[in-house]
């Protein structure tokens, strides 16, 4: 009887160990269901000479259970100063034209929608920016709703491309007491083309040198971007210099610096203790002199 109980217990352990494995291996068939309207890529970069033309395309997919009629249209986009929120406006030229404006997609069907770029011979050099929309109207009962997706086109006309910038404002506290130094820069792209700039900073003093660290930021032409970042504070109190460098993906870097006083909380506490001790002994000495 005891052998049978041991055998049943062993069989139960084996079956219990097999069951979770078979459940984990089951495929997830719902990963692409009812995801709506899909567009790809999210952004494209194209460079042409004035007078040239090219044809490109983007992918639109119907990831629903029902047929979908998709309409496409084009707008221009820009960004707002400081916040860099996108703004969309009607196109003021006919450089970018859709090859087809409307398509019908079956459930889970995709389609390449072509568009053609034709630049005039007098097209000014620099960046020109377009948004290509795909939208569809769906109905659920008596309720109609519009779904929309977009892809951005960064179009560059070759020529005298200027990647220049200017720091119009910087904010760094004169006295820092926190473990992280937070500062901000308002950087204006004074050129005529978008570009990525690597914005790095470092901290130096007579006996302290920190390795620079930073990140790349997109700067759009004729706009100002507010960038707030932070860098690790040094260990010891003292006067330090923070140096920032703005390096475009092509062109010369610009640099600026500012001095600040770093007083970590422990140094302030130590200073208070020292001042208290000095004051205590000073008062004590004065009392002794009076008694004498």
Total number of beta strands: 18
Strand content is: over 45%
What is the architecture of the largest domain at the second tier of CATH? Answer: Sandwich
**CA(first)-CA(last) distance:** 105 Å
Task: Specify the structural class.
Answer: alpha+beta
Number of domains: 2
Characterize the biggest β-sheet: 6 strands, mixed
Global outline: elongated
Number of helices, where a helix is a run of at least 4 consecutive DSSP H or I residues: 2
Instruction: Provide the CATH top-level class of the largest domain.
Output: Mainly Beta
**Topology-level CATH name of the largest domain:** Immunoglobulin-like
Radius of gyration equals 32 Å
Order of helices and strands: HEEEEEEEEEEEEEEEEEEH
CATH superfamily of the largest domain: Immunoglobulins
Overview of this protein structure:
The protein is of the alpha+beta class. The chain has two domains: 36-157, Immunoglobulins (Immunoglobulin-like), CATH 2.60.40; 165-268, Immunoglobulin-like (Sandwich), CATH 2.60.40. Helices cover 17% and strands 51% of the residues. It is built from two helices and 18 strands. The protein has helices at 2-24, 265-291; strands at residues 36-40, 43-48, 53-63, 68-79, 86-89, 96-98, 102-105, 110-118, 126-140, 143-157, 165-171, 175-176, 180-189, 195-204, 213-219, 224-232, 238-248, 254-262. Strands 2, 4, 5, 7, 9 and 10 form a six-stranded mixed beta sheet that branches. Strands 12-18-17-14-15 form a five-stranded mixed beta sheet, with no helix packed on it. Strand 9 and strand 10 (143-157) form a beta hairpin. The longest helix is centred in the last third of the chain and has 27 residues, at 265-291. The chain is elongated, with a radius of gyration of 32 Å.
């Amino acid at each position: 009887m005891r052998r049978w109980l041991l055998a049943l217990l062993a069989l139960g352990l084996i079956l219990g160990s097999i069951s979770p494995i078979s459940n984990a291996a089951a495929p997830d068939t719902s990963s692409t269901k009812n995801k709506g309207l899909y567009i790809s890529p999210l952004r494209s970069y194209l460079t042409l000479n004035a007078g040239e033309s090219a044809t490109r395309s983007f992918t639109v997919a119907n990831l629903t259970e029902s047929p979908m009629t998709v309409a496409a249209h084009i707008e221009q986009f820009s960004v707002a100063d400081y916040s860099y929120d996108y703004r969309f406006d009607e196109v003021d030229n006919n450089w970018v034209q859709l090859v087809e404006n409307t398509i019908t997609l079956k459930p889970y069907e995709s389609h390449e929608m072509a568009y053609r770029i034709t630049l005039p011979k007098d097209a000014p050099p620099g960046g020109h920016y377009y948004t290509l929309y795909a939208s569809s109207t769906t109905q659920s009962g008596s309720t109609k709703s519009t779904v929309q997706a977009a892809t951005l086109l960064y179009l560059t006309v070759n020529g005298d491309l200027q990647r220049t910038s200017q720091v119009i404002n910087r904010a760094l506290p004169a006295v820092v007491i926190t473990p992280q130094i937070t500062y901000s820069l308002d950087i204006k792209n004074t050129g005529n083309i978008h570009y990525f700039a690597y914005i790095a900073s470092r901290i130096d003093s007579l006996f302290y040198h920190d390795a620079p660290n930073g990140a790349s930021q997109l700067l759009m032409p004729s706009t100002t971007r507010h960038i707030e970042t932070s860098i690790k504070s040094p260990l010891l109190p003292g006067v330090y210099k923070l140096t920032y460098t703005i390096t475009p993906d092509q062109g010369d870097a610009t640099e600026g610096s500012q001095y600040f006083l770093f007083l970590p909380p422990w140094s302030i506490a130590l200073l208070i203790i020292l001042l208290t001790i000095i004051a205590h002994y000073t008062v004590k000495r004065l009392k002794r002199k009076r008694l004498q």
